Amino acid sequence: MKAQANGEETMLQDAVRYSKEAGSLVMELMNGPLRIHEKVNLSDLVTAVDVRSEELVRARIASEYPEHWILSEETDGGTNGERGGADPRPGYGWIIDPIDGTINFIHKIAHFAISIGIVKDGEPVVGAVFNPVTGDLYTARKGGGAFWNGQPLAVGRERELGQALIGTGFQAKDWHPDSVVLRQLCSLTGKARNVRINGAASLDLCHVASGRLTGFWHDGLYPWDVAAGLVIVREAGGVVSNRDGGEFALSDDSLVATNGAVHEALLAVLQSAAR
Ligand code: IPD
Ligand code: CA
Ligand code: CA
C-alpha cells in the first residue's frame, strides 16, 4: 500500500497535489451557478462548488490511501453545527475543508483556500493550504519546517501587544450583538496595534506563520478549519493554545495562535473580556 511505502513527506506532496487539483476545479466553477444553501443560519453557507471540491479530494484519498480515515466539512459536519469527528482516532487521517472562506468565495473576494491537514493518532503532522486565486501555497510537515511557495516561513518578531496585529472571526452562531468576540474586540482597542477579520481561518493561521499577523484567536472553529494551519504555525515557530492557555487539541472549542512573544498578553486580554 502506498501509505506504508511512503512517509509523511510523500503525503504532504500528495496533499499539495489534491489541493491544487481542487483549486483548479473551484476556479473553473467559480463563475457558474453556485447554488448557495444555508446550513445553520444565514452566515453558515455551502455552495455546490464546496461539495464538488470535497468530492474530488475525498476520491483521491480514498483511492491512493484507502487505509486512512477522512473527516471533511460537508460530509461530516452535519447541518446543526455538530462538532462531528473532533475526537482523535487512531492511525492516519485526512481532515479537509474544501473551501475555507466560503463567504469570501461567494462574494468574489480572493481570500479563500482548500485546506488539507493530516493527523497521526490524533496529532496534526502535515498541513497544506492553497489559495487558488493568488497561487499562495502554505505547507508544513512536523519537524520539517513551514513554507510559503517553497520559501521558509517564520512568525513575526513583535515583542509586545502594542505592536501586534491580531486576526479573529465570528463563528456563525456568534454573529449577534452580545457575542463574546465583540467584547474581546472592544477590549483589544488601544492595547493591540489593530485587528483584522479576513474570513478564512486556515489562511489567518498561515498569516500568523508568515508574520503578517502577530496573532489570531477564534472560538468555535472545527478541525477542518485548523488542522492544516496549526501545523504550519507551529513549524514556523508559533504557539497554538486553547483559550485557557493549554496546548490546543483538535477537539477544543477555542484557539489562540501567536508568535509566542505576545501569547500571554493576548490570552490575558481575551480571558478578562470573556468573564
Ligand atoms: C469559516 C471561515 C471563517 C470563520 C468561520 C468559519 P467556512 O469557514 O474559516 O474565517 O470565521 O467561523 O466557519 O465556513 O468558510 O469553511
Ligand atoms: Ca472553514
Ligand atoms: Ca468550508
Automatic annotation (TrEMBL):
This protein's name: Inositol-1-monophosphatase
Named cofactor requirement(s): Mg(2+)
UniProt xrefs under InterPro entries: IMPase (IPR033942), Inositol_monoP_metal-BS (IPR020583), Inositol_monophosphatase-like (IPR000760), Inositol_monophosphatase_CS (IPR020550)
Family assignment from sequence similarity: Belongs to the inositol monophosphatase superfamily.
Species in which this protein is naturally found: Paenibacillus glycinis
Keyword Hydrolase listed: yes
CDD domains in the cross-refs: IMPase
Hydrolase is among the record's keywords: yes
Pfam families: Inositol_P
